[in-house]
Specification:
74% helix; mainly alpha; 438 residues; globular; 22 helices
């Protein structure tokens, strides 16, 4: 799909490309049994399910995990266990379980550690079961893009009927996670759009640039600073990763910066939140709220450096951890994945977790090296790279809502490994044709 799109130039061709994705996905589904077809449709509808609420989103992920476990046991297809990132996931999970067992609240920590593994397991289900056909991967990318635009329409309605509350938007969830959805669930489609905007033919490039700009503006309007920075930086990197035309790249950056500056000019309170207040709150001094929320995680690591205080136990034990550090603040998590791993699972968990994260990035990057001509494969490694960026403020590593968003994007990025280079596929087809003739 993406390679075909880059060659198109007429509006009718854009429609043809959309139709091609639709008919190709129908063809892919028709080749499956009814049982397998239902599972693929359920998976592809995920971005819309994530728009509803936390419980439906978690049910979507959990049901896919259960289906994958049952299928693996019945089919005895366990070859995926030889993949390094899969093994790294199990090793990190084992460390989390051991850390939880030695926690002061072992039952709570063990429960949290046990159920957290459904997220890496969901990624395995996507890569080794549901997302093995590139036609269905493109269908998933398409539904992700559509759902991202639906989120923008919802936010536009909130802005029109209610307006921002304390410079934030909260529809459709009723809490402040709309920007989290755009930044994580929508990240694969957003990166493809940015890459196409600076490389494809004019009509495709113009449409991709317009859509990416609109979604970036809504990221600003949600008031979520870290998620906006994540999207902006990931987008700029994506623009460099697939045949960039430098004049277009510079124009796109200039247009996006101009749009944000114009928005800040007309909404000075937002400019203050994203610029002045953000800089003042950087965790480089003791008065910073980020410093006061991150430091308890470091204190937890100092108190239990080997196995930490227990997986996800920080939220319960924080008052005790900082009992003699009243200048610090307790939050459900320390707002940084690596500090959280160090504090909750110790140095062993930090090493195991970091290895797990790097292995996912490397897996996607190897797919890019093998197939650099495909725009999605070329930018897919940026997804885990940006989500696991070490110095960023982040949500709860073991929390439900953040992980639903984050792992939907990571699993799709990992699926990029299933898209074979066109040349390699052509050679394979030629070989099969030769064998058939013989």
């Amino acid at each position: 799909m993406t390679n075909d799109i880059s060659k198109l130039g007429r509006p009718s061709s854009i429609i043809n490309a959309v139709q091609k994705v639709w008919y190709d996905s129908l063809a892919a589904l028709s080749e499956l049994s009814k049982f397998e077809r239902i599972w693929r449709i359920f998976w592809i509808l995920g971005p819309f399910i994530l728009l509803i609420e936390r419980s439906p989103a978690d049910a979507w992920i959990s049901l896919i995990c259960i289906g994958f476990i049952v299928r693996t046991i019945k089919s005895k297809q366990t070859n995926f266990l030889s993949i390094f990132w899969v093994r790294a996931a199990f090793v990190f999970w084992l460390v989390c379980l051991i850390s939880a067992a030695f926690s002061k609240i072992p039952f709570y920590a063990l429960t949290e550690a046990f159920v957290w593994f459904r997220f890496p397991l969901f990624a395995m289900a996507c890569v080794f079961w549901l997302g093995t056909d590139k036609r269905l991967i493109y269908a998933m990318l398409s539904t992700t893009a559509i759902a991202m635009l639906v989120m923008c329409v919802i936010l536009a309605a909130e802005l029109y009927f209610v307006g921002q509350v304390n410079q934030r938007l909260s529809w459709p969830y009723g809490d402040l996670t709309s920007g989290n959805y755009l930044a994580k669930v929508g990240l694969p489609a957003f990166l493809v759009m940015v890459a196409l905007a600076v490389s494809a033919r004019h009509n495709i490039a113009s449409l991709a640039a317009l859509v990416s700009l609109i979604t970036l503006i809504f990221s600003v309007l949600t008031g979520e600073r870290i998620n906006f920075i994540l999207r902006a930086c990931a987008g700029m990197l994506a623009g460099l990763m697939w045949r960039p035309k430098w004049n277009r790249y510079l124009i796109l950056i200039a247009v996006e910066v101009t749009a944000v500056v114009f928005l800040f000019h007309n909404r000075p309170e937002m400019a203050d939140r994203f610029l002045t207040t953000f800089v003042d709150q950087l965790p480089i001094h003791s008065d910073s709220p980020y410093y006061r929320s991150m430091m308890p995680g470091i204190v937890a690591f100092q108190q239990a450096p080997i196995l930490g205080v227990g997986t996800a136990a920080f939220r319960e034990l924080c008052p005790e951890i900082i009992s003699d550090r009243q200048e610090l603040d307790c939050h459900p998590h320390p707002h940084n994945f690596y500090i959280q791993m160090a504090g909750e699972t110790g140095i062993i968990g930090l090493i195991a977790g970091t290895t797990f994260f790097i292995s996912i990035i490397f897996f996607c990057y190897v797919a890019r090296k093998r197939n650099p001509d495909n725009v999605f494969v070329a930018v897919a490694f940026i997804i885990p790279l940006s989500l696991f960026w070490p110095i960023a403020s982040s949500s709860d590593l073991f929390g439900q809502w953040n992980n639903c968003f984050m792992w939907s994007a990571i699993s799709l990025s990992l699926c990029s490994s299933n898209i074979e280079p066109e040349k390699a596929k052509s050679k394979k087809d030629i070989l099969n044709d030769t064998r058939n003739r013989n």
